[in-house]
Amino acid sequence: MNIKLAAPLATSLATVLGSLVWSMAINAAEPTNQELMDLIKKQQVQIEQLRLMVENNQKLVKKTDDKVEATVDAVESTMVAAKESKSKIGGYGELHYNNIEDDEQIDFHRFVMFFNHEFTNKIRFFSELEIEHALSGDGKPGEVELEQAYIEMDLNESNRLKTGVFLVPVGIINETHEPPTFYGVERNPVEKNIIPATWWEAGAGITSTIYEGLSADFAVHSGLNVETEGSNSYSIRNGRQKAAKANADSLAYTARLKYTAIPGVELAASYQVQSDVTQGINDSGASLITAHAIINSGKFGLKALYAKWDIDGSEAALLGRNEQNGYYIEPSFRLNDSWGFFARYNVWDNLAGNNTDTEITQTNFGINYWPHENVVFKFDFENQSGAGDGKGFNLGVGYMY
Question: How confident is the model at residue 29 (pLDDT cuts 50, 70, 90)?
Fold first, then answer.
């Protein structure tokens, strides 16, 4: 029995016994029968009160014990649930308004969901499901795409293996392209048309930490399958198979070296080779090289990237698509946590092998406003010259979580 509850009970018992002794002492001189009956009744009432008190105390003790046990069970359940809840959901999205040469368009460009799970502290699953342009189906502008779905496993402290569908380790935005992480409403056209981001494939890859601040990636994966006839012949962007019943006659091999030992600095270079980007039609081998730098010093930032394709074969040479290259440079100034300004100069050419004036240039400059670190509003002016002359402005809002 609880000690605190037993104390009042002992006091009550002592009171009853004391009353009995006192009554007997007072009436020691031959009490009458009526007096004895009254005394007995009085003692019976006190004994009944004592019995009820004992019962109530026992009920109170049991109720307290039940509450304690329930609290312990709830705490243990919460701790177990927190320990076992290793699945996470996230995502990002962006809405764009484009007004270029009075061609106005509004588009919910991307709606993306992340579903991740940690099996153990060494084995994880990552996935990314995307809806582009809000509506998909026959005759509709959008698509539903599985951009990532892979298992990542720690082999040791320095090496990680991933297998499944993953983003190819090339360029700046191919792996990190959530709206709050970059300037401008639209992604830069160089990585879009040359690399071509966003680019994912199916295969396996290893990431190794050589030493602190220096890492290397190597991946074997499905490759491009470019068209060999029509207006999109040897178009790199249209050659993405997106891991959808992809032709795997000719695999691709990608390697990247990345240096981040200096705070605020990222330097990286990648190389990819594929024995035949036509998957057995024209025997056209291809290689891609990319190099980029990201430098952030205080409020100032700078991004620069260069990318180039070399494609073998007379068919690609006749079209001028045996060489395709581009570069951009993007200085920026972060006024504070909420406001940032940027300018970007882009140059690319998907017909560089023609040795003619087919180069396209595009200049963007504008503002990003972050009311929250994961929410951004964007505005930029755009001026393009070359194959697709046009000027105007873009508005956008994006989020990630």
Answer: low
Q: In this predicted structure, what is the pLDDT of residue 387?
A: 76
For tokens 């605020």, the residue is 264
pLDDT digits (tens, 9 = 90+) for 382-395: 999 987 789 999 99
pLDDT tens track for 236-289: 999 999 999 999 999 999 999 999 999 999 999 999 999 999 999 999 999 999
In angstroms, rounded to a whole number, what is the distance separating the alpha carbons of residues 170 and 35? 107
Cis peptide before 198 (omega within 30 of 0): yes
Contact between 273 and 285 (Cβ < 8 Å): yes
Contacts 24+ apart (CB under 8 A), 353-362: 353/316, 353/317, 353/319, 353/320, 353/321, 353/322, 353/323, 353/324, 354/320, 355/320, 356/320, 358/320, 358/386, 358/387, 359/386, 360/189, 360/384, 360/385, 360/386, 360/387, 360/388, 361/385, 361/386, 362/189
Bridge partners for 94 per DSSP: 110, 398
Q: CA 50: distance to chain centroid? A: 66
Domain that holds residue 373: 89-400
Q: Residue 125 phi/psi, 5° resolution?
A: -125, 135
Are the beta carbons of 325 and 307 closer than 8 angstroms? yes
- How wide is the angle at C-alpha 355 spanned by C-alphas 353 and 361, nearest 5°? 90
Cα separation, 277 vs 205, whole angstroms: 20
Give the span between the Cα atoms of 329 and 259, in whole angstroms. 19
**Separation of alpha carbons 199 and 91, rounded Å:** 18
Query: 357 and 292, same structural domain?
Result: yes
Q: Are residues 143 and 285 in the same domain?
A: yes
| Per-residue buried b or exposed e for 108-147, using 16+ beta carbons within 10 Å of the residue's own CB | ebbbbebbbeeeeeeebbbbbbbbbeeeeeeeeebeebbb
DSSP letter (8 states) at residue 101: T
Last residue of a domain, one of 23, 57, 80: 80
- How large is the C-alpha radius of gyration of the chain? 37
Does residue 98 sit in the same domain as residue 55?
A: no
User: Three-class SS of residue 281?
Assistant: coil
Task: Name the region of 172 (left: φ>0; alpha: ψ -120 to 50; beta: rest).
Answer: alpha
